[in-house]
Amino acid sequence: MTAQNAVTASPVARKPRLMVTVAALAAGAALALSGCSAGQVSQTANQAPAINGNNIDVEQISLRNVHIVYPSEGYTNTQGGKAVLALAIVNNSGTVTDELTSVTTDLGTVTITPPTGDRVLSVGPQQTVVAAATAGAAGEHGDDHGSAPTTSPTAEPTASPTTQAPATSAQPPIDPEANQALIEITGLTKDITPGLTYTVSFNFKQNGTVQVQVPVDAGVEADRHESDKSGPAPEGAGGGH
């Protein structure tokens, strides 16, 4: 009886040992992984975020990727200079057109240049208007929008009354970036610094006013900051484990 009890008890005794062994192996794997990554630079450390800006909704209007553009030629983002606001304005209403009447901020005076061919920056139902992300993009392809209504009746004079109506309603959403607006802040009252946000108010005729905390585009890539723990980056670093 004593021998049988000893035999049957032995598998039970082995279970805690097995669990301890598994836990030790898991801990060793975790230490190996942390040691592998020590002193290395993440592959995404030097990549800019996919979306730089802020998002906010006001009634039926959605503002997407609102940010101050990293300065290119002609823009300095320093006191006395001028900067560019970039964003996409989406009208979610199915029936009502809205208009961006003004943009205000204590950073300076804001000038709105509508897309080519428009007197005001209006956004039709279920449409999107994009403000230029880079200087000089506004109206760059403005002729494309003016030529489409002229060429479509010429190509099909017989079918134009039937086919032209749906083509006209579907045309604007195809490429909202083809004919962009331009929103500039001129006479900057202070330097605009990446890492900070600045209050900007967007005033719409139908949907009211919304304040946005607008970040600043930090540029193409961020600098790597080394410390005594990370050590210098090895030559040709960039691969992962």
SSE blueprint and pairings:
Elements: H1 2-37, E1 54-58, E2 61-68, E3 83-91, E4 98-104, E5 109-113, E6 122-123, E7 128-131, H2 142-155, H3 160-170, E8 182-186, E9 197-204, E10 208-215
Antiparallel strand pairs: 1-2, 2-3, 3-7, 3-8, 4-6, 4-9, 5-8, 9-10
Q: Nutshell version of this structure?
A:
The chain is α+β, with helices and mostly antiparallel strands and 241 residues long.
Kindly describe this structure.
It is a single chain. The protein is α+β, with helices and mostly antiparallel strands. The chain has a domain at 54-134 and 176-215: Sandwich (Immunoglobulin-like). Helix content is 25%, strand content 25%. The protein contains three helices and ten strands, in the order H-E-E-E-E-E-E-E-H-H-E-E-E. The strands form two sheets. Strands 1, 2, 3, 5, 7 and 8 form a six-stranded antiparallel sheet that branches. Strands 6-4-9-10 form a four-stranded antiparallel sheet, with no helix packed on it. Strand 9 (197-204) and strand 10 form a beta hairpin. The two termini are 56 Å apart.
